[in-house]
Amino acid sequence: MKVEQISIFLENKAGRLAEVTAILRDANVNIRALSLADTTDFGILRLIVNDNQAAEIALKKEGFTVGKTNVLAIEVADVPGGLNNVLDPLTSAGINVEYMYAFANTKGHNAIMIFRFHDLDKAISILNQNGIKVIKGEDVYNL
Amino acid sequence: MPIYNMDFETMPREALESIQLSRLKATLERVYATVPFYRENFNKAGITPSGIKSLKDLQRIPFTVKQDLRDNYPYGMFAVPMENVVRIHASSGTTGKPTVVGYTKRDIATWAELMARSLAAGGATSKDIVHNAYGYGLFTGGLGVHYGAERLGASVIPVSGGNTKRQIIIMKDFKPTILTGTPSYILHLAEVAQEMGVSFEELHFKSGIFGAEPWSEDMRRDLEEKLHLKAIDIYGLSEVMGPGVSIECYEAQKGLHIFEDHFIAEIINPETGEPLPYGETGELVFTSITKEAFPVIRYRTRDITSLNPEPCVCGRTHVRMQKVSGRTDDMLIIRGVNVFPSQIESVLMKSKDIQPHYQLVVDRVDNLDTLTVMVEVGQEFFSDEIKTLQNMEHKLSNDIKEYLGVSAKIKLVEPKTIQRSEGKAVRVIDKRK
Predict the structure, then answer these.
(1) pLDDT of B395 over the 60 cut
(2) Surface-to-core class of residue B380, CB atoms within 10 Å of its CB (0-12 exposed, 13-18 middle, 19+ buried)
(3) Does pTM surpass 0.80?
(4) CA-based Rg of chain B, rounded to a whole angstrom?
């Protein structure tokens, strides 16, 4: 159920992001989704890619600090209130969203969003109970 | 660990002091006769060498400072004719003219003996293979260790600094058992080894003898953990001789034994010049009592430490100096607070995940001093959540404030942002000057 996300530490410097994307291009890695969280000094780039291992090796080789975290890819109905339907049961269960971002999905009618929770297993069981679809890792990498 | 020179290193204090006095008198007579600087200095203070009758009388003699050596650049402080000088070394001269030092044949032999004693104190024997990563050249580190290792009868690999990847291969293939170098370069070596997939666990080092720059107890833990060896501190400076002025013993790793049959050590208050008793912290001052080509009289090292005369478990009777905690000229005054880079290092190294690569940037913004501590975000330290990293920044900043009383901004930077040195690390960038 879980999706592996890689994250990269970036200093706030012009051109740094482009360096990362160039490294991934050269390693023939496709970016499926990304989010950039930033402060005045540094940022964290979070990525879902089609080949985690190739991405990690290429980035580490170039001296980047690369982390790996498990996240969930959740299907969200593309209608008013869709996201709210996902969040409500989680909120009632006291599960906090650390961060989330959207996924470019050209197939299907629903949106896909990436969520980071501290307690992933609990989140999965609550989502299952409420009939909300959590997408498998291997399906996400190849969407 | 066997003591290299049992007679001298374990000599009872009384006998040691009587040797010191006779050697001191001979040195004073000689510099008075041969070095114009010392003759003038003594005359100005109304002192003649024959007036020095006890070790305590040494305190009446004026100090020698780095500037005196620079003023007499290059050979003005030499006490023997050039034909008797067989070796010349020089300091890097980053803050002015370099200081040039010379050695006679006997000086080189003395230095080799003291380095052999040092290596033995650090766990080396004639059976060991020494990987010497100190730079060879004008810097005293490389050749100092080299001659000492040969004197001890160990096998020395004169690998010098740099060419780091090749060094890792040599360490794997040649199986050295003793590692020597500056701690900052050694940490760089460890980092490169890790990148190459070589673990120090599979290597064969039993001890590492590290010096030429001050390093903290916390750095020791880090070095010992990363390198799987016992980390021994060695001290020296080219003006006094080079490495091998004092050494930690393998047994205690608590203070560095000063080879007092060759050097007399004093601690003074750096502001008033007043001698301080054992145990008190101040500036370390050396008088060489056996050197021929380049004797120094009451030379102010600018290194901050204290002396401990208590007997040591290793059996050596020579006084121990604490690990150097900083230098009087390294000291930063930030908004009126005295700060030594080593204190910041101690705070940083208390967090296990922090890389030992850091740099302090001091600046003046709107007439206010600012201190920024650059810390590299390594694999262990990283998190995918901003707040975790920011909490770490706040924690470090608070710890520095609490420990040093000065506000510091922590700036997280990418790995390898801080320049790696092959010699001594550049820890401070002061933009106020």
Answers:
(1) yes
(2) exposed
(3) no
(4) 22
CA R_g for chain A: 16
| pLDDT value for B349 | 84
| Cβ distance of B414 and A10 shorter than 8 Å | yes
CB contact under 8 A, B412 and A65: no
Instruction: Please check whether residue B131 is in contact with residue B174, taking contact to mean a CB–CB distance below 8 angstroms.
Output: yes
Q: Which amino acid is at B69?
A: L
Q: Coil, strand or helix: which one is B44?
A: helix
The complex's ipTM works out to 0.82
Cβ proximity of B104 and B84 under 8 Å: yes
CB A91 within 8 A of CB A123: no
**Three-state secondary-structure class, residue B430:** strand
pLDDT digits (tens, 9 = 90+) for A9-52: 999 888 999 999 999 999 999 998 999 998 888 999 999 999 99
B315, B337: one domain = no
Same domain, B97 and B135: yes
Q: Quick one: three-class SS letters along chain A?
A: CEEEEEEEEEECCCCHHHHHHHHHHHCCCCEEEEEEEECCCEEEEEEEECCHHHHHHHHHHCCCCEEEEEEEEEEECCCCCHHHHHHHHHHHCCCCEEEEEEECCCCCCCEEEEEEECCHHHHHHHHHHCCCCEECHHHHHCC
Mark whether A63 and A79 lie in a shared domain. Answer: no
- Identify the three-state secondary structure at position B104: strand
Q: Do B384 and A67 touch (CB under 8 A)?
A: yes
Token readout for A83 is: 């996201």
CB contact under 8 A, B390 and A39: yes
* Exposure string for B72-98, b = 16+ CB within 10 A, e = fewer: bebeebbbbeeebbebbbbbeeeeeeb
For B300, residues 6+ apart whose C-beta sits below 8 A from its C-beta are B63, B64, B65, B66, B268, B270, B283, B285
Same domain, B265 and B339: no
Q: What is the DSSP letter of B56?
A: G
B386 touches chain A (CB under 8 A): yes
Nearest Cα neighbor of B283 from B259, B307, B264, B261 is B307
Expressed as residue numbers, the domain containing A22 is 2-69
- Domain of A79, CATH number, reads 3.30.2130.10
B383 at A interface, C-beta within 8 A? yes
Query: At a CB cut-off of 8 Å and minimum separation 6, what does B123 contact?
Result: B1, B178, B206, B207, B230, B232, B250
Half-sphere exposure of B433 (CA within 13 A, CB side): 7
**Residues B127 and B176 occupy one common structural domain:** yes
Instruction: For residues B133 and B124, give the distance between their C-alpha atoms in angstroms, rounded to a whole number.
Output: 16
How many angstroms separate the CA atoms of B388 and B385, rounded?
6
Beta-carbon count within 10 A of B263 CB: 24
How far apart CA B103 and CA B294 sit, in angstroms, is 7
